[in-house]
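so my prof wants the structure for this chain in the tokens format not the other one, which i didnt know existed until like an hour ago. anyway here's the sequence
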Amino acid sequence: MRGLTRFLPPVTIYRLTGRLPFAPFAGKVTATRRYEPSESSPRYEYRAPQSADDDPAWNIFPVRVPDLSELVTIDHGIALRTGHVLDRQGLVVPRAIHKKRYHLEPGWTSDRWPAGRRIPAIRGTVASIAASTQWNYYHWLFDILPRLSMLLDLKVDFDRLYLQRAKRFQAETLSIIGLSDDVVLDCDETPIFRADRLLVPCHQTTGRRRYPVWVSERLRQWFLPGGGNRPATRRLYVARSAEYGRGLANEDEIVPLLESLGFEYVLPERLPFAEQVRLFREAEVVVAPHGAGLANIVFCNPDTAIIELFPPDMKYTYYKISQTVGLRYYFARASGEQGRVMSRGNFHVTADRLLCILAMAGVGDNRRTSAERPDASGRPRSAAPTSVERTGRPGAQPEAPPSADDTSKDERSARKSSK
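here's what i got, hopefully its the right format
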């Protein structure tokens, strides 16, 4: 079947077979426009994160390449709900696909269409911000919404906006931004279409690219009501649902330890978006295994301590984001050899290692004052050792559980009982 691309245009093959091939050469674009946003925060330099020991797995790479953001225009372009974009002949336009891996090798889309049926035509100008990862909370916040921000900042005119809105967090964020339902072209209802004029904002942050400060600034402008910082006193343990994998296998040991230090057990996916924002905005320290729930650290106050727990394999995603907001970042990694792809299996982080990281972050007795906690560089403001530092065991007493009057129904359902 792949050999057909040598003799027939991809669109013709699509109409005959119901499957659209990706030809191994690039399609044509009509125009491109560079996006250069203004950033109120100064450029930052990446600082090596802190861990319980000199973990050789963390190799801070030089981040010298700026983020790539541009608006691509394609006359009579074709868009798929997977985020792939093609020209009028059905040739892939790689620069219009936001993901690094855009599959230029000969292959076939996963979206089938009845053989012989024409590709739906949408009159006018359509802007596409769909992507194969749009269902994921992190990618929605940091890949999809920044592309919407680009469209608004560039003040380009479009008749329809092509995206997904099936998830609760998608609908809630679009409602807060103020996007009208009338303008949305739902990609689940229209998996492929051709537009008279197709606009595709592109936002590349993969590889060695510097993570753009403007993305974090725009998310905070949109979703932090009232702006500014709030008093931060909450301690959060952000868990992962078992269905997603890559959770902490020894939670039965770690969670009681954290609860004795005043931590709350939170499953973000069970909470409304606004409640997630509020929790992280009020957090002074966040402990979490690597996962999409950590995307909410963008709403934390500067100087909040973030402790990310990894399997043997690691990613720098949330470390880079933490630097755009001015957070104190720490990590703990499970023992074992790293692979090329992060495992989905559960993993163990020992209590002793976590206690050491907590001590480095200044997390111990709940009665410690802000003057006794480390500053933004990670250095302690006071030389007095904490009970964790002295004994290696938590010395704080558990906080009294919040009353029903102080806790929302959604938050209670997301918090695990310590019993």
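also thought this was worth mentioning. The chain is about 25% helix and 20% strand.
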